């Protein structure tokens, strides 16, 4: 059985992680990447940045051709270091702005356009190919972007756990939507709108609620953050060991 040190020393390692909103994809993938001395690719941030640019250009999001042309015109730059997060569109730093509720509400529509996806998926694949080791997370990494990854994981958690985590996260970061908000100020209904409704919209485009063949499910409902990272690392080690046989 390979261990973490073996994985971190590999010349090539691709870990693909998908899951619904609030399952812990970003935070768990980032920590997994740190432990594997790997790069980290947040594909959701790319869809969010493309959406931010369309909103900034004040275009009609229902005009799909215009959305595609606008997205192609937005030069993306982003960090793939798990320790330094930044996203820029045409030189504008949008690291914080892409997390606003305005972007969250519009992103599913932009991400549902196939030409937008083709463009961003090509970019994602080129980053994954260029990296020695990388953990890439999103909604279609295990199935479309990197189906040949060394390890493929669907990270899940019960709806209740995901809503509670998002509530705590939003209150801690106090987004512009809810300046200074505390966890208690988010009703379950509001959190459902934020988390469950977006998942419903995204499900029409990508498949992230059921594990595809060969994809290992890690259910974090009963696990804390550190236990979830350990479960993901154990799954990567198992999958890489099995493929080496
Ligand atoms: N296993 C866990 N237990 C408790 N909280 C967690 C766990 N995994 C992630 N979190 C927290 O839940 C919140 C949502 O996680 P995030 O990584 O943003 O999810 P996603 O990228 O899937 O939307 C974050 O505040 C994160 O620290
Ligand atoms: N590989 C991906 C990643 C994200 N998306 C879309 C769908 C999501 O609603 C948005 C934002 O993704 P993000 O991972 O930031 O979402 P969370 O707020 O972390 O749940 O992008 C996608 O269509 N395909």
UniProtKB/TrEMBL annotation:
Any GO CC annotation of this UniProt entry: cytoplasm
Chemical reaction(s) catalysed: dCMP + ATP = dCDP + ADP; CMP + ATP = CDP + ADP
Annotated coiled-coil segments of the chain: none
Pfam families found in the cross-reference section: Cytidylate_kin
Listed InterPro entries: Cytidylate_kin, Cytidylate_kinase_dom, P-loop_NTPase
Molecular function GO terms recorded: ATP binding; CMP kinase activity; dCMP kinase activity
Protein name, entry field: Cytidylate kinase
Membrane-spanning segments: none
Domain Cytidylate kinase: 15-236
Residues bound to ATP: 19-27
Localization: Cytoplasm
HAMAP family: Cytidyl_kinase_type1
Domain of life: Bacteria
Keyword set includes rRNA-binding: no
Family note: Belongs to the cytidylate kinase family. Type 1 subfamily.
Key words of the record: ATP-binding, Cytoplasm, Kinase, Nucleotide-binding, Transferase
EC number in record: 2.7.4.25
Example GO biological process: pyrimidine nucleotide metabolic process
């Amino acid at each position: 059985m390979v261990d973490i040190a073996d994985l971190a020393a590999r010349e090539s390692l691709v870990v693909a992680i998908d899951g619904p909103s609030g399952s812990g994809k970003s935070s768990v993938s980032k920590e997994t990447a740190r432990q594997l001395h790997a790069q980290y690719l947040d594909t959701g941030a790319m869809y969010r940045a493309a959406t931010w640019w369309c909103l900034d250009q004040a275009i009609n999001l229902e005009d799909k051709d215009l959305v595609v042309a606008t997205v192609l015109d937005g030069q993306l730059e982003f960090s793939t270091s798990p320790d330094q997060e930044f996203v820029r569109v045409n030189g504008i730093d949008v690291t914080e702005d892409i997390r606003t509720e305005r972007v969250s509400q519009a992103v599913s529509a932009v991400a549902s356009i196939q030409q937008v996806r083709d463009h961003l998926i090509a970019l994602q694949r080129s980053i994954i190919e260029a990296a020695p080791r990388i953990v890439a997370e999103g909604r279609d990494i295990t199935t479309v972007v990197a189906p040949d990854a060394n390890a493929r994981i669907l990270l899940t958690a019960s709806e209740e756990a995901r809503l509670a985590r998002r509530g705590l996260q939003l209150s801690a970061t106090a987004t512009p939507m809810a300046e200074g908000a505390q966890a208690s100020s988010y009703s379950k209904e509001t959190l459902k709108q934020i988390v469950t409704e977006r998942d419903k919209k995204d499900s029409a485009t990508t498949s992230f609620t059921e594990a595809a063949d060969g994809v290992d499910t890690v259910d974090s409902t009963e696990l804390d953050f550190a236990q979830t990272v350990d479960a993901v690392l154990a799954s990567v080690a198992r999958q890489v060991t099995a493929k080496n046989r």
